[in-house]
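Handout, section 4.2: multi-component inputs.
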Amino acid sequence: MRSAVVDHPLDPTALLAEVASTSSGASTLFVGTVRRVNDGKDVTGIDYSAYGPMAEAELATIVAEAAARFGTERIAVEHRVGTLTLGEASIVIAVSHARRAAAMDAQRYLIEEIKKRVPVWKREHYADGSREWVDPTAVPA
Amino acid sequence: MRSAVVDHPLDPTALLAEVASTSSGASTLFVGTVRRVNDGKDVTGIDYSAYGPMAEAELATIVAEAAARFGTERIAVEHRVGTLTLGEASIVIAVSHARRAAAMDAQRYLIEEIKKRVPVWKREHYADGSREWVDPTAVPA
Amino acid sequence: MELDVLLFASWAEALGAQQVRLSLPSEPRVADVLAAAEARAGGRPLPRPLVAVNHRYAKPDTPVRAGDEVALIPPVAGG
Amino acid sequence: MELDVLLFASWAEALGAQQVRLSLPSEPRVADVLAAAEARAGGRPLPRPLVAVNHRYAKPDTPVRAGDEVALIPPVAGG
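Output:
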């Protein structure tokens, strides 16, 4: 298993190949990408920033939890930081497992825990030139 | 959305690219592969065969169900037939959606329904030279 | 009536053919197809199939007509 | 004691710095760090942060010692 915070474009195919194995019956890939519209606003790009050492530590902890809980070490996760344009991948999660249900369960566990716990922030750029830090805990206006 | 039964090696990366969109926040890829061990037996390869026209029709029906149920048309599925060796992909399912939860729900719906309903069969080849049709409904010996 | 029925997987292998001609009562239903197919299998240990009519799964009481494409579908194992 | 605390995202932007020096009572706990940070924010509408001590989330009663790496963690939004 491997996880990293990186500042270059992500390569989903490489992560899928990294976890593949002839002892696996199923592999899953999750790719999070910059979406054109969020909360009704026209997004043109996103700055991702991280508290580097803690983000790497927390990612590694979550991956180890998933490995223990779902029974596979064949997990690779990369989170990108920096300025991303529309359609670019901010996170890639690859999981390979003997059994498909466990591969999918691990995939979901990983993305949900990463969203909750890894110290990464994003500032969206909007078409009107404004920028805003995204706060998932904020009450919708 | 698109689905097909094909007799050539699958290209997961191409299917992922096919469903990608700047209106998507998440893409998922499911890849089913030939596993070295099944039910304790040493597998060396699998012959996949299909009732071609019905398999294509049933695949298309399941994809249309998933599109309606989870709210995305960005779905691509390919199932391979023929003789596959260890590690080769028998099925690839790509889904892209504005929301990650729906992308993952659609992924799971698709693979589970395909496993239940699409008329495809596999005959496993074992290291001892024997071959056997796989019957998921059989009571374990 | 006489009806050609498509065979796949373990059924095709056991009967040594991709299709068999079955003798059915007049105005046959899917259940009649199944009964005739099991008789033809003659006690070989084959998994119980479903029946598809014109590329769709059919219920036991679905009528079968001349010209329908009828197939025995052993337990599927795709994916 | 005086403690340097790391800032990120909306907090770093609002305070115009990657870290701030806070004055804390002796034998401070995480709750004291939070209180001093909120005082420093001076009424700016910032989301309530968590506190990490040496790269791990810490509870309000966790003690903070000289040499610890302490950071304010605004609501995360990765993935």
